[in-house]
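quick one, 414 residues, struct below
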Amino acid sequence: MEDERKSSIDTLSTTASAANTLRGAIKTGKAVDGIAQGSAVGGPYGAVAAGLWAERKTVVKIIAIAAFILILPILYILMLPSLIFGGGGLDSVPDNVLNDNSVILANLTDVETTIESILYEKHNQIIAKIKQEGDSLGSDCDYIITDDFADSIVYESTLIISQFCASQGDYQEINLPKLKQMIEAADGLFSYSTVVTSEEVTDEDGTTETIYHYAYTVEYAGDAYFADHIFQLTDKQSALALEYANNLNVFLYDTAYKVDINPNLRPGETGNAAVDLALTKLGTPYSQGKRNQPGYFDCSSFCYWVYNQLGVQLMYEGSNTAAAQGRYIVENNLAVSYENLAPGDLVFYSFETNNRFMNISHMGIYCGDGYIVDASSGRGKVVYRPIYSINRIVLCGRPYVVEDEASPTEQSSD
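---
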């Protein structure tokens, strides 16, 4: 049984990687165009996929020998964590789930609400424990509580969902009550540390007393605790969970963020000027800590500097990080498809789940002919190289507008 489970995990992980790679090869600026809109999984696709849930292992074997570009929508659906299709398990998935993204988003909301309510319950238990201890201190003691989680507990729901699904060998065990039970049984999600200091206090009659100050700090174990202690994932299960999370994040880019490609954006001389300017900075040292100092760049400050020289302010709510510049592109309807990249266009990558806009973690400037210029942390400098990791590109944008085709004039909005 254990060998069969390991074999199943290996096969699913390999197939997930194949789906990720293939998705990258055919993707438009909207990730897998059509899948997230429901069109690709409607009609016969929806009917077939709905009937294949209980036969996932068989489907994986079929995919391995089929020309599965034609079956990609089904494969892609199978490579999403199944909890999002129904909290009661796959046997109770509603008929319209494959054709109605609102059902999936509602399921995600239910899961996130459940996770958050449990986290706050455990948080409040720790607070109550601290207060009980503090209130029992002697009259010569006082205490304070530092709590960074009273208003918000930051957690990556897509990763937790994916880890849970990867941890279960039987698809029938993948349901919301089981997830809730596992999280509720965990003891170490929240804890606290104590620092005790003292001081001598002299009152009006000259009596000196030692007062002890207890400083309690609430601590949250973080998302890693779920993988290691709650779900107890093996290395192979962890790899599968990451594949699930990557696929789910790409799916959500189109459903939650609703990035629309603007077909009316035409390349202009500002893009060519951006490339020419960017190439003059090849070899400039990379430094995130010194990103705003002369002579240094990180990926986002580099792109910001280039376009700032050309009169385009790539900022969103006062920030010029890669995620903020990505949001600037989306909010100003400046997104373009990968297939229509032109010199000067911005390319945004997601290499990790970081709770930022679209989980964007890197960006660069497209130069044309399949090359990109970017401030690379791995190479430690600004480099010019072939465009890479296409399957990690989540957004492309043209941060300027050409208005008059006959006599181009270009504008930008701050």
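The CA atoms of residues 189 and 221 lie 5 Å apart.
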